[in-house]
Amino acid sequence: MKGKMTRKHIVELADRLFYQRGYEHTSFADIADSVQISKGNFYYHFKSKDEILAAVIQLRLENTRNMLLKWEDEGERPEDRIKSFIYILIANHADIKMYGCPVGTLCTELAKLNHASKAEAKELFSLFRTWLSRQFALLGRKEDADELAMHLLARSQGVATLVQAFQDERFIRHEVEQMCDWLSCMTSATQLTHESGGTYERDDSGT
Amino acid sequence: MKGKMTRKHIVELADRLFYQRGYEHTSFADIADSVQISKGNFYYHFKSKDEILAAVIQLRLENTRNMLLKWEDEGERPEDRIKSFIYILIANHADIKMYGCPVGTLCTELAKLNHASKAEAKELFSLFRTWLSRQFALLGRKEDADELAMHLLARSQGVATLVQAFQDERFIRHEVEQMCDWLSCMTSATQLTHESGGTYERDDSGT
DNA sequence: ACTCTATTAGGACGATCGTCCAATTTAAGA
DNA sequence: TCTTAAATTGGACGATCGTCCTAATAGAGT
Question: Which residue ranges hold the DNA-binding region (chains A, B) (predicted)?
Fold first, then answer.
């Protein structure tokens, strides 16, 4: 009973530390210090560091799913929901400025480490991709919904990277404005540019 | 005499390894194995691992400057030069798919490590930013040249991140097309949207 | 009060990290 | 050819890493 709570604490604190310092650069001692438990206690709850990472990713997946559901409840119109996505850049501007995007930086790191959990981390991106794609489809852009989702995902990733590098929050606001303009153009004009349609290959087979 | 060559080899191989595996995840043993020298020889040329990183960044800065100069020679019109920038996504698609953008991933990692050389790494971004800004100014967009440069930089960063995550090269081509379209619209229309002008704060003071 | 399981503490372990050094080899100049 | 500095070697070092193990403690159910 008590154990489940400390397990939860471990995952939450590890989540934060992995985000702030990166996975590899976060040691067991760091997490143990944060949670204020002995290093040995740890291995009662998790057999390895990889297992903690897996639990952290599962937590993030759950939180992300809840967030997306909340956005769907809060916003009636698809364009409002998409704006909810765009505005996370502003809502989390302080963290992004210091640590970048939690999803992007994790995926990048795990890819370089060739870590076993990189596929699960990618799933975080997939959640946003699928959700955004559905919203664009509801906007009447069924043909290129996936392209639009990827496009928006890429732009927010790029903004997060540059904000962290240049430490400039004004850039966020400016780019968010442009993304909203881009979204507005889409909703007013009834499907202007239906370029070469189709969907990008979705390699969800895992590697 | 001979020593300068091995020093060069060390920097070149370290450059590649830092890109592929990340700075922290690359050990001395890894570099020594690649260069095929003894681990001790290393410290004749560099006093620490940080010093190797500094040398690697200097090498990248030099290579980047040369590349930008080459682009300026090859392309007469500014729009052609900007296209040279956009097309690095295609030229380096294989590496980007596996390891992401060399500049973005390095800056992100050094920021999380809070490494002393993060300011120098940021300078890599600044080179592109300044160069692109100058090209946009030549296009007659003096007012918002810096915003446009940052915008394009962000978009290619985002593309690189997602390509690495999703392992999909078709996404590169599609986004490159869109960036070129965006550029064409800019050159044909004579300054359509001159929004709130100015330049983002350039924090080049270093931290 | 007692038992038994769940939980925690703290240290030992081998491996690997970045760093450093003494000894040796190489190569260039006189 | 001899001298001397440049270059290279291979191993020792302390620290830290992730992992594991045993003993101590806590708490719920009888």
Answer: 27-46
